[in-house]
Structures are given as C-alpha cells and as structure tokens.
Design a protein that fits this description.
The chain is α+β, with helices and mostly antiparallel strands. The protein contains 13 helices and 18 strands. The relative contact order is 0.11. It has helices at 13-20, 40-47, 66-79, 93-106, 156-162, 271-280, 294-304, 335-338, 349-359, 364-380, 416-422, 424-437, 459-469, and strands spanning 2-7, 30-35, 82-83, 109-112, 115-118, 138-144, 147-154, 168-171, 174-182, 187-192, 197-218, 221-241, 247-252, 258-269, 322-325, 344-347, 387-392, 403-408. The longest helix has 17 residues, at 364-380.
Length: 471
C-alpha cells in the first residue's frame, strides 16, 4: 500500500485530490492522511470531512479586470491583428479601442489603416504571470555556491507583507528568512534558516469607497459590493509558532504606504442589532467619549510635554501628536478623574498604537472579521492572502455603522469579494456553526482568533452577533 501525507489543508479541494493522488498510481491500494493545523479551515474540515468529497472548485476570475484584459489583448494582437472597430468577447468596442491606443502609444502595437499590429520583439505571454494580475515582479535572491540565484518571484504589492525584512518565506519545502528588501531594485535577499515559527505581517489599513455596485438589506445588516481604494502600511509583524499558532512576539517595521484599487464586500450592522448587543453586554466597539473639554485638556497636556512624544522623543512635524490615557477610560466612573493630567501622556501616533494594543477590547466585530477571513478561502478556492479584511466600528463605507470589509488583494479585483456577496447567508451560517462547535472558551485560531491576543478572542460576543446575522 502507498500513502500520501498532507500537512495542513493545501488551499483547495483540487489540490487535496492532486496531492492525495501521488500515491496508488499503479492501481495499488492507497491511503491519504491530512494532518490538520490549528487554523480555522483545517479545524473546520476535521468536523466536515465530507467537504473534501465535493467536486473540485471552479476558479474565480474577472476577464474585465483591466490588468488582466490588457495582457490578453497583447497576446491576441500577437496572434492576429485587431481591426477597428475591434471585437473582443463581450467587452465594449470603445473600451477595447482605448486600450489598443494605449498599447500603440507604449510601442508594442502599431496602426496601419484600420488594423493594429503587434510590433514588439518579445513574445507577450512570456511576461504574463499565472499567479498575479501584476506584470511587475520582485525577484527573490539567495546565495548559492558564491552566487546569487533567483529562487522565486512575487508581485510588488505582495512584497510588503510576504517578504518584508525578517519575514519567513517558504518555497519548495525550504524555509528562508528575508535579510533585505530593496523596493527600488525589485529584489529581496533571502537566507536559508530552520526555525520553529512563521511570520505574519501587521498592517494599518484605510479603505475608501469609490462606488457601490450592488447592495441589499438582510436580517441585522446591510451588505454591499463595490469599488474600493485600499491604503495599507505594514507597521510590524508577529512570529507565530508553527505547531501551536501561538504569538511568539511582535516586532516593528517601517515600510512605505501602498495603494490598491480593487473590489470589496462589506457587512454593515444596523442600529437595532448594535443596541440589542449593548443590552446583552456583548458590545465593546463603541468609541470613547472623552468629554466636552477634551480639546482644551489634550492641548494643555501636549504643551506640558513640550509637544514631544514621551516615549521616543519625536517632535510634532505637521501632524498633531496623540494624548493617551495611561489607565483606560473605561476603568473610571468619573470622566474628570480619567482626564486628570496625571493620567495623560503625549505620544506620537506610532507609540500610541503600541500603547493601545495592550488594552484593545475584544469584540464580536473583530471575531466576525477573523472568522470570515479565515473560512472564506475554503469557499473561494483562493489563498487566505488573496483577500484582505478590516473591522471598523464607525466605518465611512458603512455610513457610520460598525462594518466588516473583505476585499480582493488583486488590483482591480477578480471576483472573490463578489462571490462572498452572493453567498453571504451561507457564509454566516457556516461561521456560526464553526464558532459554536469550537471547544475553546474565549477564542482560538480555529474560530475567532486566539483569546489571549490583543483585541482578539471575544467568542461569546461573536456568537451573539452571529445570532442576528445567521437567521
């Protein structure tokens, strides 16, 4: 008998079958065993093994994504000249004409009469990556026998969170640590290592809604789908134990902002749901009310501290420093005691984030975000890193309502968030089942996030929230 051993869910049902099929190829008996990790998808599959018997997934892709479409036009023009007015699938001739003109201006096409001809010397498909919509690449270099050898490549938007300095990068069964990331030269220098952890980037993200393409009202919420602009900045990373998924420490980073035009799906809670959760004592996402004199008080504290961060010494330069409560506001019954100058300190935004991280409140909103982001890839046939997530208790996208946003991490979007919008109710019911049946007390990597993590956990809060959404 031959056997295949799968260490963790490989990302899709198709991949499970492909890897399992490596044994028993000569009509012999075979056995396939999957060792589940502590992650949400793996633990979900241990309770729903029948899921692995489903038909392999259909890959999601948006052929009208401009980054994808223009690469296809290059390949089509190489095979056969376009005639004006151009015809290309169901895409409007006006859009195709505009893109062909752009390609003509860039020098890869020329126009003769009513036809566009391929004139570049290179074969266009050689420059089109199969795993990314971006044609630009970051080369991953490793020293071997005294020479730098390219061991892989990724697109630039992914570099900030996948190959930032000190990141652990897994490739072809080998483990590397990033010694240097040079965004100007599009290179990352890797060094072989053998450690007991992986890394997870921590980013600050702002999401701006450009257009709403679809929306509907459902029990407890209003969901929407549309075009978004996502601005992200990787500010640090965590080391995660390979066996237990425990947080082994957090470390700061300073990388430039990145912007992404993409599509997203959002869940905005209605006021009745939030008020019901408040009455249950299950809502911890309300913004602090610092009182009517907070402006004067905070200015006086900043002046007392000479407008310097009291941790790192940074000066205010075009951006006002924050004033931080040493003992959290919620620990006081009297606002005047909470706002006494002895309890206040001036901090720069970076140091304030670190200080707030220690006292961040667990909430059902964060638990929902964690569960949705971690379970969705099972239904989307994508890697967890293909989607981003954000929980905001006062979201502009949700018109001021508490909102969870899931967005495609691919420029222009390829249909992942659109599919989540379509299967919203099924996702809520599956998440409720996953969280309710998890044996942990207050959160773990298999449901709403580790209970001991800053701002994570909150299992009971998440269950209460889901009781309104999954009906």
């Amino acid at each position: 008998m031959n056997a295949s051993l799968l260490v963790g869910y490989p990302g899709s049902i198709a991949a499970v079958r492909q890897q399992s099929g490596r044994s028993g190829r000569k009509a012999n008996s075979s056995l396939a065993i999957m060792i589940a990790s502590p992650g949400a998808i793996d633990q979900y599959l241990t309770r729903h093994s029948e899921f692995l018997n489903r038909s392999p997934e259909n890959a999601l892709i948006d052929p009208d994504n401009l980054a994808i479409l223009i690469q296809h036009l290059k390949c089509a023009a190489f095979e056969l000249p376009f005639t004006d007015p151009p015809v290309f699938g169901s895409t409007s001739p006006e859009l195709i004409h505009g893109l062909l003109e752009i390609l003509k201006e860039s020098g890869v096409l020329s126009r003769g009469g009513t036809k566009y001809f391929w004139t570049a010397s290179q074969y266009p498909s050689n420059e089109i990556p199969l795993r990314s919509a971006s044609p630009d690449r970051i080369n991953l270099l490793c020293a071997q026998n005294g020479q730098l050898v390219t061991v892989g490549e990724i697109d630039p938007p992914s570099a900030h969170w996948m190959v930032h300095p000190q990141a652990i990068y897994l490739h072809d069964g080998s483990m590397y640590q990033v010694a240097e990331l040079d965004l100007d030269k599009n290179t990352a220098l890797l060094e072989p290592v053998n450690v007991d952890y992986i890394t997870e980037a921590r980013a600050e993200t702002e999401v701006e809604k450009i257009a709403t393409l679809d929306q509907k009202s459902l029990p407890g919420t209003k969901i929407g789908f549309g075009d978004l602009r996502v601005t992200s900045k990787v500010v640090g990373f965590k080391r995660i134990n390979l066996l237990t998924y425990e947080n082994m420490g957090e470390f700061p980073l300073d990388l430039p902002d990145t912007q992404l035009r993409t599509t997203g799906y959002w869940i905005a809670l209605d006021s009745l749901t939030v008020e019901a959760l408040r009455l249950e004592g299950r809502w911890g996402s309300d913004a602090n009310n610092y009182g009517p004199n907070w402006g004067k008080i905070s200015l006086a504290v900043r002046r007392r501290d000479q407008f310097l961060c009291q941790v790192c010494g940074a000066e205010e330069k075009g951006k006002t420093h924050h004033v931080h409560h040493k003992t959290p506001l919620r620990c006081f019954h009297n606002i005047d005691e909470a706002n006494h100058p002895s309890n206040l300190i001036t901090l720069c935004p970076a140091c304030h984030r670190k200080a707030e991280g220690v006292v961040r409140i667990k909430s059902g909103l964060n638990g929902l975000k964690y569960a949705l982001q971690n379970l969705a890839p099972l239904f989307l046939m994508c890697d967890i890193n293909d989607i981003g997530a954000l929980a905001d208790p006062e979201s502009v996208i949700g018109e001021g309502a508490p909102t969870v946003v899931i967005y495609d991490r691919i420029p222009g979007g390829i249909g992942l968030s659109r599919e989540l919008f379509t299967i919203h109710m099924d996702m809520m019911k599956n998440i409720l089942e996953m969280v309710a049946n998890c044996e942990c007390l207050d959160g773990c990597p298999a449901c709403v996030g580790p209970g001991g993590e800053k701002g994570s956990g909150g299992k009971q809060e998440t269950l209460s929230l889901l009781s309104f959404l999954a009906v």
